[in-house]
Write a structure and sequence with these properties.
alpha/beta; 9-stranded mixed beta sheet; 6-stranded parallel beta sheet; 37% helix; binds adenosine-5'-diphosphate; binds alpha-D-glucopyranose
């Protein structure tokens, strides 16, 4: 199959969160399965072109509300660091300096860029312009456009509404993946003309919503198929509690919605080889993990004591229940544990975390930073990983933690409910358990779950079994990529927006 994968960030080029991990790993895995994949990204100035071997390939005239804008398309390949595979995915970047020549991806100083609609309408339109000419540039025409999140949602709508005269695009089928339904790409209704779509699409049956326009809704309404990143989240977003106002739209399309769990990029996240770590370890030789723990204690200025080390690596956002962790800290610290937290985001949470570190200098370490290497080291060195998320579409750090023998303590929601197999005191010898789950997003529930974990940790054999069960479970992309391939097959059979006739184009 020929797949065009559109995303606004991808590892190893740029990253603000889990979408980048997915967009960097899934295309590569699909290529390994023998499919032709092209990942399309904005060419942010932040991307180091030299490091990633980006070479100018062509120029595109992208139609926009300002008239045609000239985009530079650069090309590279998605690296396979193991070099064990001869297949690779293409990467094409869309460059337009006034939109992407900035110091950040979506926001600065806590505020979204004022022209985000202009920027991502442009990018989404460029994806379609590129799709139409891929045959002459790469020698293959895409059959599937796989778009992700609000930033590329318009590419779905453009594909179904603006390109009836393009034989390639008329045959193109679309999958839209929602990684987080709370991030919707909402803009004032008055800005609708910037999308370049006809006014009939501004209404509540299309992109319109309560006096604004919602790009995510466009993807949800018009893609041939929808997916999200865990089976539980695919059900949750059909409810008012988790749907963020889009639950009715999702429910309408539930027959075309699938939940597929994210996987672990087992090259980037392997405790036996991870270049970010001071020592390596495996499920059968865990000695290196102690060295990693000591290194984390040293990095955070905590005493080198043999007490449980609890960790959080996260965007600092209400979604992640960081306030719950902060509220639970006094009682956690009373258990004689150390807690390290790494994250950036909400300024109030940042300053509350800094205050906690000052209040408990011997027990709490905080780093307000986005640092890939530090994230790896903390996940490797900790004993427990805390995720009291209010909602969690999938969650990757819990998967990474399990792979690194760091036992997750998570709220039972979304992907956390699907990926962490909970320990139960009623079945202390349950051999498959990989972590701890609780239901309420409250400090008390988190504290109780941590207390249970600490009791289990006191039993060295039982704890080792928990660690090893997580480390040895196959959570790689190989499993999920096969499910995407099955879904793509269904997508290809979709009749398309203008009916079956168009498929023969
Ligand atoms: P989300 O996408 O909602 O932020 P995920 O768990 O899916 O949550 O993915 C988060 C990704 O971002 C992980 O790769 C995690 O290691 C990384 N990450 C989060 N915060 C930081 C940080 N402060 N520094 C480095 N990496 C971080
Ligand atoms: C979103 C979600 C997270 C998920 C990630 C990648 O950012 O918040 O749960 O793992 O996307 O799909």
């Amino acid at each position: 199959m020929n797949i065009l994968f559109a995303a606004s960030e991808a590892m190893p080029f740029t990253k603000t969160g889990g979408l980048a991990d997915v967009a960097g790993a899934l295309p590569r895995e699909l290529a390994r399965l023998g499919h032709r994949v092209c990942l399309v990204l904005p060419r942010y100035a932040l991307i180091d072109g030299e490091q990633h071997g980006l070479k100018e390939r062509l120029h595109l005239k992208v139609p926009t509300f300002l008239g045609p804008l000239d985009a530079t398309v650069e090309e590279t390949r998605l690296p396979d660091p193991t070099l064990r595979f001869e297949t690779w995915a293409h990467v094409l970047t869309i460059g337009y300096e006034p939109y992407f020549g900035r110091s950040s991806l979506y926001m600065e100083g806590g505020k979204d860029y004022a022209d985000n609609l202009d920027r991502f309408a442009f990018f989404s339109r460029a994806v379609l312009e590129l799709a139409a000419i891929l045959d002459s540039t790469l020698g293959w025409a895409p059959q599937i456009l796989h778009a992700n999140d609000w930033q590329t949602a318009l590419s779905v709508v453009y594909g179904t509404h603006l390109y009836a005269s393009s034989p390639v695009i008329r045959k193109l089928r679309t999958l839209f993946t929602v990684h987080n339904v709370a991030y919707q790409g909402s803009f004032p209704q008055t800005a609708f003309p910037k999308t370049g779509l006809g006014p009939e699409l501004a209404g509540p049956d299309a992109l319109g919503r309560d006096g604004s326009i919602c790009l995510l809704k466009g993807g949800l309404r018009f893609a041939d198929f929808l997916s999200t990143v865990s089976p539980t989240y695919s059900l949750e977003i059909q409810t008012p509690e988790y749907g963020y106002g889009l639950d009715a739209v999702v429910r309408q399309r539930r027959d075309h919605l699938v939940g597929i769990l994210n996987g672990v990029d087992t090259v980037a996240w392997d405790p036996a080889t991870d270049p970010h770590l001071p020592a390596h370890f495996t499920s059968t030789d865990l000695s290196g993990k102690t060295i990693c723990k000591r290194a984390v204690q040293a990095a955070f200025g905590l005493p080198r004591r043999d007490v449980p080390l609890l960790a959080v690596v996260s965007r600092l956002d209400r979604q992640k229940g960081i306030d719950v962790v902060i509220a639970a800290l006094p009682e956690l610290v009373a258990e004689d544990v150390q807690v390290v937290l790494v994250g950036t985001g909400d300024p109030q949470l940042e300053s509350a975390l800094r205050s906690s570190a000052q209040r408990y200098p011997a027990n709490v370490g905080v780093r307000i930073d986005f640092d890939e290497g530090l994230a790896h080291r903390v996940i490797a060195g900790a004993d427990l990983f805390l995720m009291p998320s209010r909602y969690e579409p999938c969650g990757l750090t819990d998967l990474y933690s399990m792979r690194y023998g760091t036992v997750p303590v998570v709220r039972r929601t979304g992907g956390l409910a699907d990926t962490v197999l909970p320990y139960s005191p009623a079945r202390p010898d349950h051999a498959d358990a990989t972590g701890f789950q609780f239901d309420q997003a409250s400090p008390e529930a988190l504290r109780d779950s941590v207390r249970l974990a600490l009791r289990v940790q006191a039993n060295a054999d039982r704890w080792r079994r928990l660690m090893q069960a997580g480390m040895e479970r196959d959570m790689s992309w190989a499993v999920s990529a096969v499910q995407y391939v099955e879904l793509y097959r269904k997508v290809l059979e979709a009749p398309g927006p203008r009916g079956e006739l168009d498929r023969s184009g």
